Each structure stands twice: as structure tokens, then as C-alpha cells.
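Q: Sequence in, structure out?
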Amino acid sequence: MSDINIKITDREGVAHDIVAPTDMSMNLMEIIRSYELAEEGTIGVCGGMAMCASCQVYVINDPGLEEMGAEEDAMLGEAFHVQENSRLGCQLHIVPEMEGLEVEIAPYP
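A: Exactly. Output:
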């Protein structure tokens, strides 16, 4: 089992140091849900299909995330509260290269 350390700041401004597994095919949205860092029904509304932007995060420290795909880019083009460092948590699959990632959960529309 291989775990990485991630820092996630919730919508209340509280920072959480999270240990996330890299061997369970999880994405950042699922990590946020499993640690209950966002109110039920306000994250991953579409189930992780890049269709709602409820899992939008702001990347504070990028240790080397994969490039944004076309679907993610299109969804962020229609979302609220988008910033230059916005990403969709459902599109960020937990891999060892994400060690040290820091994100802040974007406000829920």
C-alpha cells in the first residue's frame, strides 16, 4: 500500500492534513467525500463525471498534476467561482506524484 500526504482546506477555511491511498483508484473528490470535508450533497453531485463542478478546488501547491483534459476545461468554462488555478477534484486521480498537493475547496454555488 502506498499513501501520499495532501493538504485540503475546506470551505470554512480549516486546513486538513490528509493521508490518501494511491492504490485504490480514487480521485480527489472521493477523498474529500470520504473524509467528510464538504457538506453532504455539495460535492460530487454528478458522481464524478465532470458535469457539475461541485468538486472544484483551487490548487495552492502543484507537485506535478496531469494536464487538464477537454471535458474538465469545458466544465470549468461554465462553472461559478473559477480561478486561474481551478481544477475539478473528480479529474485528479490520486497517484504518487501528487505527494505534497495542497488545495482549497471552492465555494458551492
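Helices lie at 28-34, 70-76.
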